[in-house]
Amino acid sequence: MTTAITKVVFPVAGLGTRFLPVTKAIPKEMLPIADQPLIQYAVQEAQQAGIEEFIFVTNPTNRVLLQAHFSTNAQLEATLAERGKLAELKIVKETTLAPEQVKFCYQDRPLGLGHAVWCAREYLEGGPFAVILPDDLIMAKPGCLKQMVDLHAKLGGNIVAVENVARELTSRYGILDVSSDDGSIVSAKGLVEKPKPEEAPSTLSIIGRYILDHQVFQHLDKKMTGSGGEIQLTDAISATIGQVPFHGLRFEGTRFDCGSMFGFVEANVAFGLKSSQHESKLRTYLKNHL
Ligand code: G1P
């Protein structure tokens, strides 16, 4: 029996340097894709996977926006009710998370993804947990994290979502040193963070979804720096291989890298085309435009 995954960490204190100037004042996780901010897609994916506690690793400024989005806005709800805007009221109410489900912690310096997860340790109480990087938006049914939770129920241990990337892009990702691969589930003998294309052990890369065993903290506690002088989550997972089962899951779905302008535009088109209200207009617009 494996332990159920009930907690998710959202490391959202990043600087968004690949998408300036938009991210100068707007945190990446608040960028809208169609009619929702990225962070709301991430929360919904987590809810669909059975997550009950949402831990945001952020900073005091961005916390205000996250809180505003996920808590009750009594004035807005009253106004919508008064005006009979019931569909809008339903949409607004659906964004609310119960205050006891939400935790905030701060990462005051950009010391890396491993450090961001380490900052959430006080809320993770020894059990396994999930991590979602909201700028990796995944369109999938069931959601990517649900696919991983189902696999975790069978195999336990550390699980990461993976997909193949072009070899020239390996230096942007955590890359698996594959030991076996059945086309869906992959085992690895090691992981390398952001290797140069000529040094990458494969092109199978980690996408921003993780289920992690508490053992990763044994490595993260040492605050060892890796690629880019940062404390890397990839290195912590790699250090547990041999002690904790490790698997990569080639998830079913499409991933959009919304931390860059191209992925952001792509995602807006893809999610726009999913909207029953706008699909046909958008399709016509795109056809005419092209
Ligand atoms: C992070 C991880 C990397 C992973 C990537 C997925 O990198 O460190 O291993 O492949 O997310 O998006 P970042 O994008 O924060 O540089």
UniProtKB/TrEMBL annotation:
Pfam families assigned to the protein according to its UniProt record, in alphabetical order: NTP_transferase
Entries under InterPro entries matching the protein: GalU_uridylyltTrfase_bac/arc (IPR005771), NTP_transferase_dom (IPR005835), Nucleotide-diphossugar_trans (IPR029044)
Catalytic activity: alpha-D-glucose 1-phosphate + UTP + H(+) = UDP-alpha-D-glucose + diphosphate
Top-level EC class: transferase
One Gene Ontology term from the biological process aspect of the record: UDP-alpha-D-glucose metabolic process
EC number: 2.7.7.9
Identification of the protein by name: UTP--glucose-1-phosphate uridylyltransferase
GO molecular function terms noted in the UniProt entry: UTP:glucose-1-phosphate uridylyltransferase activity
The family this protein is said to belong to: Belongs to the UDPGP type 2 family.
UniProt KW keywords: Nucleotidyltransferase, Transferase
SUPFAM superfamilies: Nucleotide-diphospho-sugar transferases
Residue span, Nucleotidyl transferase domain: 13-268
CDD domains for the chain: UGPase_prokaryotic (cd02541)
